Amino acid sequence: MVRLITHNLLACHVKGCTTNNFPLVFKDVQIELREAEFNEDFLRGFAPRLEWKALVGAAKQLGDTSLPEEQPEMLDEDFLKALHHVLLEIHVEEGAMVCQNCEHVYPIKNGIPNMAERERTGDPRAGDNY
């Protein structure tokens, strides 16, 4: 399922697409909010691994502006709760993720991203979106 914790790890993997291929940009998405159990220790351990600017940008694309532009050094409870919400409770159910570089489209259906690379046929009926 596409949550921002997963999105923060995904880059375009089209052959030859090696620059400006992260983060993928959300397009025409439908989101659902689902409560998840708060785990402070997990968040404290995971926070240093995040690509912060990518996370904040993705959250904004989905309508959430609760995270600060810069990752704080002090991880207080209010910050961790906001981070928890953004990473684990916002679910992208439908839509797509698009590479900023090559514009490859990764569709999201029923919360599952299709990260497979299809050959470009040039036939719009094939769903290539090129």
From TrEMBL:
GO terms for molecular function: protein heterodimerization activity. One of its GO terms (biological process) is tRNA methylation. Belongs to the TRM112 family. Interacts with TRM9. This is Trm112p-domain-containing protein.
